[in-house]
Task: structure prediction
Amino acid sequence: MSATITDGFLDHRIFHIISDAAAELGVRAFVIGGYVRDCFLGRRSKDIDIVVEGSGIALAEAVGAKVHSNVSVFRNFGTAMLRFQGIEVEFVGARKESYRRDSRKPIVEDGTLEDDQLRRDFTINAMAFSLQKEDYGALVDPFGGIRDLAAGIIRTPLDPDTTYSDDPLRMVRAIRFATKLTDGQMEFRIVDESLDSIRRNCSRMEILSKERIVDELNKILVTPRPSIGFRLMDQTGLLDYVLPQLAGLKGVETVDGKGHKDNFSHTLEVLDNVAAAEEEAIGLGLLKDYFFEDGEEADAVRTAPNVWLRWAALLHDIAKPATKRYDRELGWTFHGHEVVGARMVPKIFAGLKMPLNEKMKYVQKLVNLHLRPIALVTEEVTDSAVRRLLFDAGNDIDDLMLLCNADITSKNQRKVARLKANFELVKAKLVEVEEKDAVRNFKNPITGDYVMELFGIEPCNLIGQLKEGVKNAILDGKIENTFEAADAFMREQAAGMGLFPVR
Result:
């Protein structure tokens, strides 16, 4: 298909600079891939890929000299990258690839634009705009990508068995694009022959690094409707290779005519609920991200989805199969699934080669606490219970409340409406207690050093007992959260232990 595109797509100055530099070097250059696709979708992108019939590094260096920008060169991959006016431009030489069956690493040779387009994953990502003077803006689309884009189709340029066997990650990428590109106006679908090929080749996932798989999972998770991706992974068999613990949530068991909800479908509903609620809260500037800067805690208004919140939603009920029991009076129960689930989180993260740092601990915390606000909805909302929730959740209380609100699902809409109304009361109580008692970032007024100096003792268990007693007294509302009240209470408790001030 041939067409010339310039207005709005190639009117940025960087494209003309690249065109001039390519002409001076005597090479042909093209804009290719996601930028071209997103132009037709009306989605502006700040990431531009340039393919060159020649040296991508040489062209990048020539453009860098013209725009006075530093060029990052990656000679092992034959690529280079520069930034110009907020846009990131990556250059690569056109190449053709072939693969060995036992490896995902290709044998790479210099090639033409056509060779480069053949190695692309999907037709909608293989389209290119010419930057040559003689046909500037011409669309080069040998596989009908523009037609597939208009029809909402994910299709491979080559036979899908070849495409997916060569690099199995493309199977997950197909699902990621179907998830990412679907919106309220159009649903993108993977063609049937491609879905069948994924089912045939899913065992090839075993040759992939966990890091590459997780990178795709994270991109699926931050889409507006991540459930699309996980349902497709389930339908094609990929889920058993990617996240078997999630696949284990599927199915409904019935005893005495009583069945529990399908926890897989429920989890995906909660995940979509979280995505929608977070997007709305971000738009209103209601969420913050907390971090340490120069040793001090700081915060910033959240402007993009928090992928770790999405992981918490995905894993919040992950231990239900392990804790499922049937009681003839109560029906199906999953007692303690939040505790068992929190213990599973580090193992799941380790298995996927994901970080075991504060990000994992954040997910673990939300999984462990996700029933607490729900319990407040169904029971009396006491100041003491709210203080303890604020203390345990800390700065993550807003994300926890968002997750728990999203977890209120039922086919009984009257029940959902009642629970959500009660949930608003809990949120109001949280604000009231926090303003009054400031326990979100609780710091014990009594320190170990103070106790040792006051009573003239060395480090021992009694110090921890006294500090714990002060903490509980504050959280239970017995004393105010001040040093004076805490000191008086601590001295009284110490006297009962036979400890008296030495000064």
